[in-house]
Amino acid sequence: MSGGTPLMVVDRSGVVVRWSGRARELWLRSESEAVGRTALSMVMPGTGDPGDAAETGIGSGPQGIRDIDGNPVDLRVQVVPLSDGEVAWGVFEADESAAPVGARTAVSDAPRANTREAFFVLDSELRVLSVNDAACALCDVAADKALDRPVTDVCRPSRPQEFEGVLRSVLADGVSVNGHVVRLDPVDGSPPERFATVSAFPLKSTHGLVVSMTEVSEPMRAERRQTALGSVRERVGRNLDVVATCQELVDALVPGFADIAVVEVVDAVVRGEDPPLSPLGRDIPLRRAAFRNGGPARLAQAHPVGDVRALPAPTPYSQVLSDLTPRAVALDCGTPWLDADPDRARAIRASGARTLLTAPLALRGAVLGLLSLYRVRPNDAFDKDDLDVAHEMATHTALSLDNARRYTHEHTIAAALQRHLLPPEPPSQTAMEFAPLHVPADTGAGTWFDAFSLPGARTALAIGEVSGSGIDAATTMGQLRTVIHSLAALDLEPDELLARLNDAVVRLAYERAALPPSDPLHQQPLTASCVYAVHDPLQKACVMASAGHPAPVVAHPGGVVHVPELPTGPLLGNRDGPPFATASIPMRDGSVLALRTTSFPVSGSADGHRTDPLREPLTRLDRPLQEVRDDILYRLRDTSGTHDVILLLARTRAFPPDQVATWPLDSVPAAAATARHHAQDRLRLWGVDEETAFATELIVSELVTNAVRHGAPPIRLRLIKDSTLTCEVSDAGGAAPRLRHARTVDEGGRGLFICAQLSHNWGIRYSAEGKTIWTEQTLP
């Protein structure tokens, strides 16, 4: 015979009870077309009893066998009784060199002895009627010792009740079972863990069964190892978090490859620091990062996840981290090294672990951690092939951990950089108080907010996001924030400021595109979104503009919450987008302006509608602003995006009316003297020191004189006493004054120069009505 598996199995009535894949190829008949029919009637019309097959020449040559279409099949077969008593017969493919067999007795022994497939013939009570030599070898039992015994006692499956249930279902339903895998108890000289594929076929003539078994222990163990390795390669390293990577590893290995898995990593690695070189020092702590137990004692572990401590020595664990060589160790009560680690010894005994495999998580001689695998089942020890595949899995995991560590290191730097670039919580001002909310993301560092004072008791507010993440996003964010401060010092309108900011982003994007193609940043486009707003408490309005950013939410006392219709311009970095536009929003005293990033989550309600977590908290403004902010925070559900979640709450307050004074002036030369007189009286009323008051009178005189000479009526003087003293002179003229250094013989041209020397800041603000020249002086 050319193989140990029969082409078909027939019962004593000649009915096919098993039809192999090779038979389907030869006779072109499917299993449903063959099983249950007379075998010889299909391949040799006119023959009867299968026992006549050997005698009538089924093995004598190819000319008598035909396929379903009647075509001759070039095949030599041998018909062999599979058991004593000839209850079932096997039709085998004969070797080309085999001589024709002319009698049943000539083939009844040798083929049966040579077949590699174990056959059992069972009665209706699942007792053994007959076995072949392969079955005796598989079960390590003599043929006479196997007869008349329950089949579960002979082949000894690890789960006898389950195995018996499969066979009884075949008896009851009359439907064959093919390829069912069972675990067998070990026998003398066998591997500690054995598997076999089982096929069972009903024998209608005897109401019994033919059971065939083929041992597949080594293929199953190899498949288990390859399955575990494939699972590790597929599942481990899908994210860039050290602890999550460790959990992925234990989930991939339990319960298929091991019953218990523990991963411990060097604590410094979790923080993104460089791993130490081997041998690992005894004082270096390891963090228990992941644990999984697939058995019933699910809580049996030496230390809880998150525990940090150094490894006791000498133990297999410490030795593995010393020489970086995996080890497989048997565990029993007499294991001497368990005394060095009482906590692990207690957990091992509680879990019933019988064997340990421990492997280093190391890369280029540096130690990142330790993998420990345990098996609980008897006779299921780790072997050399398991050590090899565990080493491969540990190497893959170490590479994934190192990638996660590097990312953590970069993210830590980016987060620190962002913290230094972001402003601290803005101090409350006379006309506005603030309450920022910052929820960092794992891959953020490109979001920012800002709030700072502008001349005239006004306040500038900004919020935005930069595309990308990490250090590059954080540095770009810092650049844009600096540009905004510089442009705000020019007193530009929000739409004009965003236009200039867009020019800066376009230049930065051009510089990024000019990087070498090998630079990762070269492939990342640069865009940003931003909202810039200016609140004027004296006008009780907020003027704002948007560059691809959501409009702020406005809440007024009394429970009115709305999102104003703010024209949304293009993202920053767009070369050909439409111009930016502004919107002026009335702001009552006590109103709240909520600026949020695009990553601010929107929660889903039970009825499927999406709700804003801002709306309900902002309807209750009769409480401290920090309490409103915390209420919003507690309502956030999903903040797992790639950018930080930032919210800036700003509540308006009434500016004290007695701290502002405004006078209209006639466009006549005497207006300067009138303005000095008004300023002198008001500064005396405010209690301003004499030196500051004298400088203010000079500033007022010079600014009003310039307005009369070079401007256009109406002219207005306004003094504002806040943290600084602001002097504003407005007129309807559009001509821009400039600071000049007059020559010695010049009679004029020193006005703005004098103002700049007497104040710490000055500037020009344009509006639809004209311009305003302002100065700021510090107050002692």
Identify the overall geometry. Answer: elongated
Query: Can you give the helix content as a percent range?
Result: 25-40%
**What characterizes the major β-sheet?**
6 strands, antiparallel
Strand content: 25-35%
First-residue to last-residue Cα separation = 111 Å
Rg value:
44 Å
Mean pLDDT: 82
Low-confidence stretches: 45-63, 97-114, 604-609, 742-749
The side-by-side strand order for the widest beta sheet comes to: 12-11-10-15-14-13
Which class do the helix and strand fractions yield? alpha+beta
SS summary, helix count: 23
Number of strands: 33
Question: How would you characterize the overall build of this protein?
Answer:
This protein has 780 residues and is of the alpha+beta class. 32% of the residues lie in helices and 26% in strands. The strands form seven sheets. Strands 12-11-10-15-14-13 form a six-stranded antiparallel sheet, with helices on both faces. Strands 17, 18, 19, 20, 23 and 24 form a six-stranded mixed sheet that branches. The chain has a five-stranded antiparallel sheet with strand order 6-5-9-8-7. A hairpin with a 2-residue loop joins β30 and β31 (724-731). The radius of gyration is 44 Å and the shape is elongated.
